């Protein structure tokens, strides 16, 4: 039974169960978290520098979520999902492992972006304090005029900065085009009225 438990849940789960003061404690602190999300990292204090992985395979939904995180944070193209070496690494020893199509990952990334943008917009609309904005402008190697707009405020007592958008302006970085791009982003997030309550200035390239 012990060998079977180690194969299914891992050495850490068996060790924690042995260290528990009784069956009820072991069930609550070890078994229930495993049944809930397949991980026991929430059941014991993780040692500094130690990374704990699940002993169960991801569900299809979890795999898609991890793919979104991976390609987004590492700036990988969606086509990497069909990379031969990547598939060999993921499916060796478990050929049935689910890997979504690049089109599925692309759709999931757009969905996560849309929902995250909506959450940020709602948070800014309901924010009762002052919002500070900053812009940065540059010209891309293919001669396109780009501006980035960020917002800065306090959240739960901590300073928070987030990128609102990166937009292309139709012509050079003049004050008029910078202002138009800035106003468009404020309207997209539904916070133009909050910003208009304060004096705004836009610095243009000379």
Largest sheet: 3 strands, antiparallel
Strand order of the largest sheet: 1-2-3
Helix content: 40-55%
The secondary-structure class comes to alpha+beta
Features:
single chain, 206 residues, alpha+beta, 3 domains, 3-stranded antiparallel β-sheet, disordered C terminus, metal-binding, RNaseH-like_sf, zinc, zinc ion binding
Task: Produce the secondary structure layout.
Layout: H1 2-9, H2 11-19, H3 23-37, H4 60-73, H5 84-91, H6 102-126, E1 132-139, E2 145-155, E3 158-168, H7 175-188, H8 192-196
Antiparallel strand pairs: 1-2, 2-3
Helix pairs in contact: 1-2, 2-3, 4-6
Short description:
By secondary structure, this protein is α+β, with helices and mostly antiparallel strands.
Write a structural description.
The structure is a single chain. The protein is an alpha+beta fold and 206 residues long. It folds into 3 domains: 1-44, no CATH class; 57-126; 129-204. The protein has 8 helices and 3 strands, in the order H-H-H-H-H-H-E-E-E-H-H. The protein has helices at 2-9, 11-19, 23-37, 60-73, 84-91, 102-126, 175-188, 192-196; strands spanning 132-139, 145-155, 158-168. Strands 1-2-3 form a 3-stranded antiparallel sheet, with helices on one face. Strand 1 (132-139) and strand 2 (145-155) form a beta hairpin. Keywords: Metal-binding, Nucleus, Zinc, Zinc-finger. Its main location: nucleus. GO terms for molecular function: zinc ion binding. It is found in: Nucleus.
């Amino acid at each position: 039974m012990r060998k079977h438990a180690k194969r299914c849940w891992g050495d850490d789960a068996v060790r924690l169960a042995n260290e528990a003061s009784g069956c009820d404690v072991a069930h609550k602190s070890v078994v229930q978290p495993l049944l809930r999300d397949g991980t026991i990292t929430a059941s014991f204090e993780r040692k500094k520098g130690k990374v704990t992985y699940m002993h169960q395979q991801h569900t299809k939904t979890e795999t898609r979520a991890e793919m979104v995180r991976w390609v987004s944070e590492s700036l990988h193209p969606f086509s990497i999902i069909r990379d031969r070496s990547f598939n060999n690494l993921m499916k060796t020893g478990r050929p049935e492992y689910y890997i979504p199509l690049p089109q599925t990952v692309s759709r999931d990334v757009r969905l996560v972006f849309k929902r995250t943008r909506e959450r940020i917009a709602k948070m800014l609309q309901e924010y009762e304090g002052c919002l500070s904005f900053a812009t940065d402008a540059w010209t891309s190697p293919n001669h396109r005029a780009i501006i980035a707009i960020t917002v800065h405020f306090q959240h739960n007592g901590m300073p928070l900065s987030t990128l609102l958008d990166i937009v292309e302006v139709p012509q050079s970085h003049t004050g008029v085009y910078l202002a138009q791009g800035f106003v468009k982003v404020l309207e997209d997030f539904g916070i133009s009225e909050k910003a208009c309550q304060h004096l705004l200035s836009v610095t243009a390239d000379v």
